[in-house]
Design goal:
The complex is a heterodimer.
Chain A: H1 4-37, H2 45-63, H3 66-91, H4 95-118, H5 144-148, H6 153-171, H7 173-183, H8 185-190, H9 195-222, H10 233-243, H11 248-270, H12 277-281, H13 283-292
Chain B: E1 5-7, H1 15-37, H2 44-56, H3 59-84, H4 92-111, H5 121-150, H6 154-174, H7 207-224, H8 226-236, H9 238-243, H10 248-275, H11 286-296, H12 304-325, H13 330-345, E2 352-354
Antiparallel strand pairs in B: 1-2
Helix pairs in contact in B: 1-13, 2-3, 2-12, 3-7, 3-8, 3-10, 3-11, 3-12, 4-5, 4-6, 4-10, 4-11, 5-10, 7-8, 8-10, 11-12, 11-13, 12-13
The chains are: A mainly alpha, B mainly alpha.
Chain lengths: 311, 367
């Protein structure tokens, strides 16, 4: 059994890891909310995260600047989602099919790109990362300090992004247009809104979010690239969007819950609890299944989700 | 001078146009992948020649290609059934893994001289197919139930289920079913439980026969039987199907059951035919490649067979090329996904037609 000191140490490492692991999930979910609110289910975010991670890694490796890395991760995410947006909106192909096939393409492309850029390197090269910052005064608060105020700058930017996304979606004309297009594209078109333009914007924002998440993974969590670093995080983000009822701030909270489930496994291993690690590793996926199973009530999804707009 | 490209009022239905667009998309994908070969092989044509020579040019290569095509066919057949019924199932990775685990459990019980040890070989295979089919069927059918009873989103449920199944099998091979030794895997199955050889002198086993028979059966189900008709009606328009007296909710569960069962059979041929033991990460992405194969075959159960052989040949040849020239096999992944992406994208061309800029055809539409 753990004594009081051990228990508090356990809780602190667990929660701090939960907050850290939630970062990429939040970023991905925020972007996806804009795509889904405009009526497009972008399953391709899983592959986009990987592309963003590769771009972030390679640019930081070349330049030594994690800032350039994160910017290029976002740019790469937007770039590949230009193609996805074209497939979803202009070609009007089945959104799930396009997303799934794109994820396989992205896996191949990222693996190929890494091989071309790095050669047949024997061991992966570490790159400079965003270091954790201790915020003065706040980080000295017991428990809360290490849990909330000793993270890399990317985490604080992520939280800020959630607040900005909430403002944009519910307090600006653009946000209103996005929601209108996702609920009833025909009515929105009659009101003078360009449905395709709004949906392109939604998909590109989801690309930016997923690309940033890839950069976050590499530049704030891992420090190197492998084509296995994104194991279902994009899919989990799809579950978070549903858990968060398509609202950015709720999605932030939902992502923290998922981060906690993910981190539990790490902390329990660290403190040598005797439980099969696979059971805990499965927790985030099981949570997502519960979220989307319909068992906890069907939350109102955008009415025109996955429906192509044919004027 | 008039514009050369004109938008049609409605997409063309001409089979010639659609066939030409599909062929063009495949060629374009091969051209793009040819560029990717350049850093490793100065002559991309030579790369393709070696890919197909390694996979189809010898009995040995052909045998490996057919071994690899068989599970793809089974998964693609599962995709045909589920997707035609409007059930967007993506959980084949999990079905493959669990089907393999169930088969492994049964095959290993032969090792302990349990139930399987005392029965004839033919009966063993029939029972093994039954067990794996039921395992995958219940796994996927449960997801069908979540959709039809509670309105769950089967796309996301089935995506997540893949990870749960993979972790469960990882637990099995690391714990309860682990063989003594340093690697997390089960003991090797007794040799009587291996799939019998088909092509003498090679590793080609009868999995391809099982898969082709399954393809015929699924074709019969979908085109010649009441149940298949109900599936397709449900997929095209569930409300109209319900009005026509079809129990739509039940059809989702049944379609999911068949899809899961077929996916699990892919796991069976993989463990009994190729691996001969259960190990972690056994499905290795074939659950998704199989879906792509089905898409290339336009969800037609018979067309699935040549499409799967093409994809298996590409991956077998790609592996061989990686060994000989160092060209990464990820190029083949890219090619396999690009083919389907381009075929889907070419759909937009159905809305356009070309006309000569000089000759007046006499017809002018103003949209």
């Amino acid at each position: 059994m753990l004594d009081d000191f051990g228990l508090s140490a356990f809780v602190i490492t667990w929660l701090a890891a939960a907050v850290r692991l939630a970062g990429p999930l939040v970023l991905t979910a925020l972007g996806e909310i804009f795509a889904e609110r405009s009526g497009v289910l972008n399953v391709g975010i899983e592959g986009t995260i990987l592309i963003g991670a590769l771009a972030g890694y390679l640019i930081t490796f070349e330049t030594g600047s994690p800032w350039l890395g994160i910017v290029s991760a976002i740019a790469a995410g937007v770039f590949v989602n230009l193609f996805l947006a074209w497939m979803y909106v202009t070609v009007q192909a089945n959104q799930v099919v396009v997303g799934i096939v794109f994820n396989i393409f992205a896996l191949g492309a990222a693996s190929y790109g890494y091989r071309i850029a790095m050669g047949q390197a024997s061991s992966p090269e570490l790159i400079p990362m965003f270091n954790p910052l201790d915020i003065p005064v706040l980080s000295d608060i017991p428990v809360l300090g290490p849990v909330l105020f000793s993270h890399s700058i990317l985490l604080y930017l992520t939280i800020a992004a959630a607040l900005v996304a909430n403002y944009v979606l519910f307090r600006t004309r653009f946000g209103l247009n996005v929601r209108a297009v996702g609920e009833n594209p025909y009515a929105a078109a009659n009101a003078g809104i360009s449905v395709s333009r709004i949906r392109y914007a939604g998909v590109l924002l989801s690309g930016a979010g997923a690309g940033a998440a890839g950069g976050y993974l590499v530049l704030a969590e891992i420090g190197l690239f492998r084509d296995t670093i994104v194991v279902g995080q994009g899919f989990i983000a799809l579950g978070i969007v549903i858990f968060g009822r398509w609202k950015p701030v709720y999605a932030l909270l939902a992502a923290l819950a998922f981060g906690a489930a993910d981190a539990l496994q790490l902390s329990l291993q660290l403190f040598e609890f005797d439980a099969p690690p696979q059971l805990l590793l499965a927790l985030p996926y099981l949570l997502t299944i519960i979220a989307v199973s319909g068992l906890i009530g069907r939350s109102a999804q955008p009415a025109a989700l996955m429906q192509p707009y044919r004027p | 001078m008039r514009s050369i490209v004109v938008r049609r009022q409605s997409p063309t239905q001409s089979p010639w146009a659609i066939g030409a667009m599909t062929a063009g998309s495949v060629v374009l994908a091969f051209l793009v992948a040819a560029i990717l070969f350049l850093p490793f092989e100065s002559n991309p044509l030579q790369a393709y020649v070696s890919v197909f020579d390694a996979s189809l040019g010898s009995w040995r290569g052909l045998a490996i290609t057919l071994n690899r095509a068989a599970p793809l066919i089974l998964i693609a057949l599962g995709t045909c059934v589920a997707w035609r019924a409007g059930f967007g199932f993506l959980g084949f990775e999990g079905c493959v893994t669990l089907g393999a685990a169930a088969t492994a459990w049964f095959a290993l019980s032969a090792l302990d001289e349990g139930i399987a040890g005392s029965i004839p070989v033919v009966l063993f295979f029939i029972i093994a197919i039954f067990i794996s089919f039921i395992t995958g069927g219940i796994w996927a059918g449960g997801m069908g139930l979540l959709r039809s009873r509670f309105g769950g989103n089967e796309v996301l449920i089935s995506l997540m289920s893949n990870y749960v199944a993979a972790l469960f099998v990882q637990y099995l091979v690391a714990g309860p079913m682990r063989a003594p030794g340093s690697l997390p895997q089960t003991p090797r199955f007794p040799i009587e439980t291996w799939l019998p050889n088909l092509i003498p002198g090679t590793r080609g086993h009868i999995a391809i026969v099982i898969a082709v028979v399954a393809s015929g059966l699924v074709w019969m189900l979908m085109s010649r039987m009441r149940l298949g008709y109900d599936f397709i009606a449900t997929g095209i328009n569930p409300r109209a199907a319900r009005y026509g007296g079809i129990n739509v909710r039940q059809k989702y569960v049944l379609a999911a059951f068949f899809a899961g069962g077929l996916g699990a059979m892919a796991g069976l041929v993989e463990v009994l035919g190729t691996q001969h033991r259960l190990l972690d990460g056994l499905s290795g992405g074939i659950g998704f490649i199989g879906i792509i194969v089905a898409l290339l075959a336009k969800l037609n159960p018979l067309a699935v067979v040549p499409a799967a052989i093409l994809y298996a040949a590409l991956s077998v040849g790609g592996d061989a090329l990686q060994r000989s020239t160092g060209a990464p096999s990820s190029i083949i992944f890219i090619l396999q996904s690009l083919i389907v992406l381009f075929v889907m994208a070419s759909d937009i061309l159905r809305y356009y037609r070309f006309r000569s800029p000089f000759v007046n055809s006499g017809l002018t539409h103003h949209a």
